[in-house]
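On to our target:
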Amino acid sequence: AAATAGVYAGRAAIPPVPYFVQSAAAGVVVRPDGRVLDAPGAIPAPDLPRVVAATDVALPAGGSEPFLHVWRNEGREVARVEPQVVRLEGRPPAVRLTSRLPAEKLPADRLGEWVVDVETAAGQLVGRADFEVGR
């Protein structure tokens, strides 16, 4: 009971993120409307520079704050990228965030599990896209 009370009390100190990811994808095929087709399997390592991460973030309360795409390989942060932002029509209001891993940040060892986290400027996790890089 004390643990539950502590968690409940802590909620006031850590406000909830009023955003959520409606869709997330990472791949090398970008449709004309800006959506990215999820890679059906492991992306070949030579194709990593062509990978685009796209995340559609709902803004239920309206407004928006700056977001970041944080690229990670096997749990290690590789790059923090300010994504391109496009407003989407509909309810709730939303934005599509897209980014690529900068060429200067490409690691020598590219294999393994990758995630692209969507974070607020304050560092709160909103959601993620994940993919695998193979040979």
Summary: The longest strand covers residues 125-134.
